[in-house]
């Protein structure tokens, strides 16, 4: 995965989140773009960056359109070395989450692979 991706707010992702509280992002809507619901910006860092890593896993598996959510998590781990686990809380059910100790590594990886700018780490 040598391509650099964009991360953009997307009204369609916002509609999806309104319909399903676990849906904060998607890919394959716009070429090379991770689309985010505005609500994703208020998630705890462990969930926000877990979701972005997961979506990068989907993008890496684009040539296998029938891949599963678990395969996207596994691909994200293969690429970043950061384990994604699933958790449910007031932000949604079955959300992609990383351990707090991995947040800075996730930021470093994500900022290399995307145009996402993270300040005040």
Describe this structure in words.
The chain is globular. 40% of the residues lie in helices and 17% in strands. Helix 2 crosses helix 3 and helix 2 packs across helix 4. It has a single domain (6-113), classed as Zincin-like, CATH 3.30.2010. It has four helices and five strands; from the N terminus they run βαββααββα. The chain has 121 residues and is an alpha+beta fold. The chain has helices at 11-19, 45-60, 69-80, 103-113; strands at residues 6-9, 25-26, 33-36, 85-89, 92-97. The two termini are 25 Å apart. The mean pLDDT is 93. The strands form two sheets. Strands 1-3-2 form a three-stranded mixed beta sheet, sandwiched between helices.
Describe the secondary-structure layout.
Elements: E1 6-9, H1 11-19, E2 25-26, E3 33-36, H2 45-60, H3 69-80, E4 85-89, E5 92-97, H4 103-113
Parallel strand pairs: 1-3
Antiparallel strand pairs: 2-3, 4-5
Q: How much is the radius of gyration in Å? A: 13 Å
CATH topology: Zincin-like
The helicity comes to 25-40%
Would you state the CATH class? Alpha Beta
């Amino acid at each position: 995965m040598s391509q650099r991706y964009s991360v953009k707010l997307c009204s369609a992702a916002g509609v999806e989140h309104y319909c399903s509280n676990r849906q904060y992002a998607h890919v394959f809507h716009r070429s090379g773009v991770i689309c985010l619901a505005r609500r994703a910006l208020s998630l705890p860092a462990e969930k926000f960056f877990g979701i972005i890593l997961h979506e990068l896993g989907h993008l890496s598996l684009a040539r296998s359109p029938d891949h599963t959510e678990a395969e996207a998590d596994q691909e994200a781990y293969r690429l970043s070395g950061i384990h994604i686990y699933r958790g449910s809380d007031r932000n949604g059910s079955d959300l992609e989450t990383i351990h707090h100790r991995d947040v800075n590594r996730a930021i470093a990886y994500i900022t290399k692979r995307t145009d996402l700018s993270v300040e005040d780490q």
